Amino acid sequence: MPLPPRGSTIQAADAPFTPLREPEGRVVSILGYGNQGRAHALNLRDSGAIVVIGGRPGSAARHQAEAEGFETFDLAEATRRGDLVVIALPDEVHGPIWRTTLSTAIRPGQVIGVVHGFSLHHGDIDPPTGVGAVLVAPKGPGRTVRERYLMDQGIPSIIAVHREIEIPGHGQSSATDASGLALAWATGLGCTRGGSIVGTVADETETDLFGEQAVLCGGMTALFLAAFETLVEAGYPPEIAYIECCHEAKQVADLVYNQGIAGMRAAISNTAEFGIDTAGPRLVDEGTRSEMRAMLAEIRDGRFANRLRADADHGFEGLHRHRKTQTDHPIEDAGAKVRDLMPWLSEEDRRSQASTRKTSDEGGSGASPE
Ligand SMILES: NC(=O)c1ccc[n+]([C@@H]2O[C@H](COP(=O)([O-])OP(=O)(O)OC[C@H]3O[C@@H](n4cnc5c(N)ncnc54)[C@H](OP(=O)(O)O)[C@@H]3O)[C@@H](O)[C@H]2O)c1
């Protein structure tokens, strides 16, 4: 069942779960039980797939998977057992683990799955002949993938086939192909309840990195900090600066999420809307656009990936330094005080907030950025 052309939208009716439904006897091995891995494992199991988990010895995440009812194995054994082997490990360890462990365990007829294209696109994972490779990348954090599934909703994903293979039927399972497993995976996750989009691994990798750098993480964080610092420098109380320049971003983002930018404009005051057109072009001028094009070029030609790998090879010394700088920034204290005004924030959110503060106090590296 080849995927429809690039840019097509796929819904559940076009993406049968049958190839992974339990009577077919196929096994989904999920390597890693972190943000994405746990959500994929729980959603696929609840949808009726046989799921096992792979993890390193002594792994806290593997222990959690066992406590949540999964059979777990070391990474090589989990790889051998999977018809679909989903690599839900941090991107920077895909290459080393592929070379030392996975490449010798994988066999023709199996299909490798990734939830972000970085390692496939940049050649850190190089599936041998006869091994399929697909991508199902949900466009949101693992926690949201799970929450939406439980609400009978789903978040969109990008689906791509990097290497197609035919998979003959055996025993109770009927013949399928790598595309069939990718479609079933997306449906089992809940991602085709609304719709998922067909792309290439390059589409997903390059747009994902660009979006998070230019807007979602890089651009937005820099705007929050610069605006906060401008107000505090001018003598305004930090808590007010935080509310105006950071906290309220959620309300505006929710409007855009539900109604688009035009809908957001209609929902805010004329005064606020007037400010969009006077301030926006001053902040995002030709210089900003030119930087965006340069960032995209560095993502496309691999310079960004090389910088990431170089920092990973040095224990993420640069990443940890910047993380520490952020936890020590005055915006964190102001934000903590504002969040303390909202006792309805979940315990889970409060815990991660507390761990950020603890990390700062101890000078440690803290939790994963996503
Ligand atoms: N975070 C998100 O929501 C998000 C969104 C979209 C796509 N993605 C993609 O999802 C993939 C996984 O990212 P993630 O954020 O879910 O990762 P994560 O939360 O950091 O989870 C990593 C998992 O891998 C294990 N692990 C870490 N280092 C390891 C190593 N050296 N050897 C063996 N196991 C190791 C961890 O367990 P132990 O440390 O306990 O061993 C944990 O189970 C990446 O490709 C990422 O780009 C993530």
Question: Concise description?
Answer:
This protein has helices at 35-47, 60-67, 75-81, 91-105, 118-121, 142-150, 178-189, 201-216, 218-233, 238-247, 249-267, 270-283, 286-300, 303-313, 317-327, 330-340, 347-362; strands at residues 9-10, 27-31, 50-54, 71-73, 84-87, 111-114, 132-138, 157-163, 166-167, 176-177, 196-198. By secondary structure, the chain is an alpha/beta fold. The strands form two sheets. The chain has a nine-stranded mixed beta sheet, sandwiched between helices. The protein has a two-stranded antiparallel ribbon with strand order 9-10.
List the helices and strands and how they pair.
Layout: E1 9-10, E2 27-31, H1 35-47, E3 50-54, H2 60-67, E4 71-73, H3 75-81, E5 84-87, H4 91-105, E6 111-114, H5 118-121, E7 132-138, H6 142-150, E8 157-163, E9 166-167, E10 176-177, H7 178-189, E11 196-198, H8 201-216, H9 218-233, H10 238-247, H11 249-267, H12 270-283, H13 286-300, H14 303-313, H15 317-327, H16 330-340, H17 347-362
Parallel strand pairs: 2-3, 2-5, 3-4, 5-6, 6-7, 8-11
Antiparallel strand pairs: 1-11, 7-8, 9-10
Kindly state the percentage of residues in helix.
55-70%
> Quick one: CATH superfamily of the largest domain?
NAD(P)-binding Rossmann-like Domain
Rough shape?
A: globular
Task: Please report the first level of CATH classification, the CATH class of the largest domain.
Answer: Alpha Beta
Total number of distinct structural domains: 2
How far apart, in Å, are the first and last alpha carbons?
34 Å
* Beta-strand share of residues: 5-15%
Strand order of the largest sheet: 1-11-8-7-6-5-2-3-4
Bound molecules: NADP nicotinamide-adenine-dinucleotide phosphate
What is the CATH architecture descriptor of the largest domain?
Answer: 3-Layer(aba) Sandwich
Number of helices: 17
Poorly predicted runs: 356-370
Largest sheet: 9 strands, mixed
At the fold tier of CATH, the topology name of the largest domain is Rossmann fold
Structural class by sheet pairing and helices: alpha/beta
Order of helices and strands: EEHEHEHEHEHEHEEEHEHHHHHHHHHH
- The mean pLDDT is 93
Radius of gyration, taken over Cα atoms and rounded to an integer in Å: 22 Å
